[in-house]
Amino acid sequence: MEKVDERLGKTTRQWQGAAEAYLASVTHASGEDLEQLRSYLDPQAEETVLDRGCGVGHTLRRLAQRARLAVGADPTPGLLEGARTLLTRDGIENPLLVATPAETLPFLATSFDAFACRVAAHHILAPDRCFRDASRVRP
Fold it and tell me: Given phi > 0 = left and psi -120 to 50 = alpha, else beta, which region is 115?
């Protein structure tokens, strides 16, 4: 069986050039679920939120508009560049973008007030590890 690290490398290479398509995707950029997620998380001005599998930042952009700090984490540098493009275009300056696999987040325990993962879970190679680690970084 292929190791997660090897599969992660293949997955990252596969999605590296997809930023433009995701930036233009109406499905990813909007939708009732996006507004429901932001309403459910209800980030406050003093809070720090994490968007795991942020891709080009459609969810991150909405969370960052209300939170003190919004961190977008994704294993694909090309998608993070897309997020940087989107956030810069919209004048949103408080997000931090981090290239990291979903299964091992490089953050201290209880670093975040809220955690989001929208339209990305099906890309995660080891969802059990990912969401266990997500519960570690959130109180």
Answer: beta
- C-alpha 49/C-alpha 90 separation (Å) is 19
Q: Are 74 and 139 in contact (CB under 8 A)?
A: no
Instruction: Give pairs for 2-9: CB < 8 Å, separation 24+.
Output: 4/101, 4/103, 4/125, 4/126, 4/129, 7/125, 8/75, 8/101, 8/125
CB 60 within 8 A of CB 70: yes
The residues, ordered by sequence, that sit 6+ positions from 135 with a Cβ below 8 Å of its Cβ are none
The 10s digit of each residue's pLDDT in 56-95 is 999 999 999 999 999 999 998 999 999 999 999 999 999 9
> What are the structure tokens assigned to 39, written together?
């309403």
